[in-house]
Design goal:
With 275 residues, the protein is α+β, with helices and mostly antiparallel strands. The protein contains five helices and 13 strands. α1 packs parallel to α4, α3 packs antiparallel against α4 and α3 packs across α5.
């Protein structure tokens, strides 16, 4: 279970407690730092990866001023929002580039399981990189590559008020937070520890062979994914789009959409759940 975490009146992340709980023999994590403020934890770890930072490095920030989402979107976290923003660096050397597309899905599984356990919210997944609760976006995930390293960033809205959150993108779900959902568990240190434990456990199951089926990752993702079985509109890179029903996940983590012309595997795109 790890050592208990200290309680801070202003809810600062307990760096010492996190290190004691997570940097243990056999753990997926080798280093963990918490900084007061940075532009982007993903950008920082991508730079560290190029300098040779070790597999299993974790960086969390109390405040992130220019965090990034998919397709150039921003994820800023004002102090009052009490967001949980962090990134992890892994080096899945045995996995070919095509197989690494499972990493954001794996991170989604870890985040959803941890949010259910710690915050007691009904967290589900929207392909490829969103965590939803109460019909709104609670968390986002971004995976980026630097050489043989992959950096996966996760941002979770914890204490944000309605006025702290950005307006939704056209056609996208509105953002929400654990506070707005009335979640009983909003301790950021406990939540970060739980996400990292889940992420480390799932990574160690999946990474030796990169087999999402044998490791149980595909089954777990399908169990958590609200996109499967839903009518969707997918806005593809370059401006094209397709419509149909999401029916499954392909071998490289693609979303399979059953269209009027037959099933189409989607590797990248913005998915809109059609109501």
């Amino acid at each position: 279970m790890g050592k208990p975490f200290s309680t801070h009146s202003d809810d600062e992340l307990d760096e010492a407690g996190l290190r004691a709980a997570l940097l243990t023999p056999g753990s997926a994590w080798s280093a963990l730092d918490v900084v007061a403020q940075t532009g982007s934890t993903n950008a920082d770890l991508l730079a560290a990866a190029r300098r040779g930072a070790a597999h299993g490095t974790v960086l969390a920030a109390e405040q992130q001023t220019s965090g990034r989402g998919r397709q150039g979107r921003t994820w800023a976290t004002p102090p009052a929002a009490r967001a949980l923003t962090f990134s992890v660096l892994v080096r899945p050397a045995a996995i070919p580039p095509s197989g690494r597309s499972w990493l954001p899905l794996l991170a989604g599984v870890a985040a959803a399981r941890a949010l259910r356990a710690v915050a007691a919210v009904d967290a589900v997944l929207k392909w490829p990189n969103d965590v939803l609760a109460g019909g709104a976006k609670l968390a986002g995930i971004l995976a980026e590559q630097a050489g043989d390293a992959v950096v996966v960033g996760i941002g979770i809205n914890v204490g944000a008020r309605r006025e702290d959150l950005p307006p939704p993108q056209p056609g996208a779900l509105p953002p929400t937070s654990l506070a707005l959902l009335g979640a009983p568990g909003t301790d950021r240190t406990a939540l970060l520890a739980a996400v990292l434990r889940e992420l480390g456990d799932w990574y160690q199951r999946w990474a030796p062979a990169g087999d999402a089926t044998a490791s149980g990752l595909r089954e777990e993702y399908l169990l958590r994914c609200a996109t499967i079985g839903t009518a969707v509109r997918v806005e593809l890179p370059g401006g094209a789009h397709l419509a149909g029903t999401a029916t499954g996940i392909g071998p490289a983590g693609q979303l399979v959409v059953d269209t009027a012309d037959g099933p189409v595997p989607v590797t990248a795109g913005d998915v809109i759940h059609v109501r």
